Amino acid sequence: MCAFNLPAVVLTLGRDQWPLVSDYYLTLCRDKTDKVRQSLASSMHEVARIVGPQQADEHLVGPFGWFLHDFDHIQGAVLENLASLVMAFGIDAGRQVLETVAESWGSIKQWRRREAVAKQLAGLGGHFLVQGTPEEFLGVLVKAFKDPVASVRDNAVYAVRSLPLFSLRGRSSLFWRPLQIPNMFAATEQDPLARSKLWAFLAVFSEDSGYRHRTTYTSCAYAAVRGGCSRELFESYFLDALSRLARDPVVNVRIGVARVVAEACRSRVCPSLWNGTKG
């Protein structure tokens, strides 16, 4: 009951009084009763939001790692709200948390836990790309793209779709508004290094020896078109690789390219994109 009500206590006291309860919180995070730890894992994102990034960075990054390597139901509880938790941390602590997730990917045995993480990646990509710090985010994304379970891979690709790759015009998309996520390419418009890392990350999948990874690349391209990718971006970042993959020896890869072609032809953004010029 104490663990269940602790977030309400923290909210009532306010962030300035967090030092009064922080030691008790950390003690409960190590409690031998797994239901206590599960309750705290489920509410960690709320506690982090209440106490603010500076205190969350100092006191909550460690317990996150503990919970991530705990029993499955505790691991699931802390991963269920991963995006909210990461956004409540400062940028450096958020990167540390994502790095921990990537390093621990193989320890997340239940594929639905990994799927839950993949579903939340859309809420994180633009944030870290805007900051010019995409490495840890891409580290988690590559784990999801290479996951052995198709549902995990598919949801990671949908994250790309949820970060639509359209429009480099203007800079309004670089600023956060409620329920709006900066798109991946616009987020790196003023940072050529971050953009090159993003593109290198995607390009690796187009050249991978594993056909599933090349299929994942075509799914990303499909998601980009569905998201409203402009002709300029598509030709710059996808077209050459897709032209090569159209001659791939694996039929599933060629089918993936065909889906992209069909969607591009239907798209109002680039209706004449595939006009035979890439042969």
Question: Share of helix among residues?
Answer: 55-70%
Extract low-pLDDT stretches.
Answer: 162-182
Tally the helices: 18
Query: Quick one: biggest sheet?
Result: none
H and E order: HHHHHHHHHHHHHHHHHH
What structural class do you assign from the helix and strand content? Answer: mainly alpha
- The shape, in one word, is elongated
* Radius of gyration, whole Å: 21 Å
Note the topology.
Layout: H1 2-13, H2 18-29, H3 34-51, H4 53-59, H5 61-68, H6 72-79, H7 82-88, H8 91-103, H9 111-120, H10 122-130, H11 135-145, H12 150-162, H13 184-187, H14 192-206, H15 211-226, H16 231-237, H17 239-245, H18 251-266
Structure explained in plain terms:
Helix 8 packs parallel to helix 11 (135-145) and helix 12 runs parallel beside helix 15 (211-226). The longest helix has 18 residues, at 34-51. It is built from 18 helices and no strands. The model is unreliable at 162-182 (pLDDT under 50). The chain starts with a helix and ends in a 13-residue tail after the last helix. It is elongated, with a radius of gyration of 21 Å. The chain is mainly alpha-helical and 279 residues long.
